[in-house]
Amino acid sequence: METTRQYVALTDLRFYAFHGYYPEEQVLGNEFTVAVRTGFLRRETGGDELNRTVNYETLYNIAKTEMQVARKLLETVAETMLTRVQEEFPFVDEIEVTICKNQPPFGGDRAKAAVTLSWNRHPKEM
Description:
Blueprint: E1 5-17, H1 23-28, E2 30-41, H2 56-67, H3 74-88, E3 94-101, E4 113-120
Antiparallel strand pairs: 1-2, 2-3, 3-4
Protein name: 7,8-dihydroneopterin aldolase
GO molecular function: dihydroneopterin aldolase activity
Organism: Parapedobacter indicus
């Protein structure tokens, strides 16, 4: 039996936010980029209905809302985004969230720090 996997993703979402372990990061803020990728089995072909897919406007609003809540760790922000995507789209069986801090406070004029959380409802055997 043939199946079709569908992926819906947003990449390079830019936010100015106040995440960081150090107090000065929570005061000064930083620029972040966010990517959210979802995957699921496509149940039906054809049709042009939004309820058959992941609404990327909803993904954007989840990312925007969570980026506005200052937290110490990017892992916490990514985990909250991942959980909200699971709740909003229960048919999704893969989610990946990446958050990148574009100028972390440890130096390096082009340095970036990133955290990625990847969830799969049906992990492959190791």
